[in-house]
Specification:
Number of domains: 2
Distance between the termini: 36 Å
CATH superfamily of the largest domain: NusG, N-terminal domain
Number of strands: 13
Shape: elongated
Strand order of the largest sheet: 12-11-10-9-13
CATH class of the largest domain: Alpha Beta
CATH architecture of the largest domain: 2-Layer Sandwich
Low-confidence stretches: none
Strand content: 35-45%
Radius of gyration: 20 Å
Helix content: 10-25%
Structural class: mainly beta
């Protein structure tokens, strides 16, 4: 039976580690999310690992030579305690997989409701917190942002925001 374990990859080597683990027959899962950053005078959206430095690997401990993982190119180590890798709860991995598309990119929340607090993920207002005012028939969200004591109404696509706690 395949169980999921946590591996740490070397800095900026998630693609290399994922490719080499898959070549060896291991199943990998690397959840990604979009991050907006400013480069000169433009905003660029990059896909980054949801858990920087870590990814999940599915291993059948009875048949797979899991000891090869530590020597895989791009992998720093298989996270273990007392010298033994500990499996992660299957419910954690399955719920993360349900929130991702085929490529591992995190999907937007299922529904936004008026009054929800959201964080803008992309564009010039990235990392600003706003309140959902309405959602129109074309599924565009109208949010209210506070700028210097004044509320400003902005239209945004629902996949450009995420709910905050």
């Amino acid at each position: 039976m395949t169980q999921w374990y946590l591996i740490q990859f070397k800095p900026n080597s998630h693609r290399l580690a994922e490719r080499n683990l898959q070549r060896q027959g291991f199943e990998t899962f690397l959840p990604l999310h979009e991050v907006a950053r400013r480069k000169t005078s433009r905003f660029i959206t990059d896909l980054r690992p949801l858990f920087p430095g870590y990814m999940f690997v599915g291993i059948d401990m009875n048949s797979a030579p899991w000891s090869k993982i530590n020597s895989t190119l791009g992998v720093s180590r298989l996270v273990s305690f007392d010298g033994t890798p500990k499996p992660l709860p299957l419910q954690l991995i399955s719920s993360l997989m349900l929130r991702c598309d085929e490529e591992g990119k995190m999907l937007p929340p299922a529904a936004l409701n008026p009054g929800d607090n959201v964080e803008v993920l992309t564009g010039p207002f990235a990392h600003f917190v706003a309140t959902v005012e309405t959602i129109d028939a074309q599924q565009r969200a109208w949010i209210l942002m506070d700028f210097m004591g004044q509320s400003t109404r902005i239209q945004i696509a629902p996949d450009q925001v995420q709910l905050t706690d």
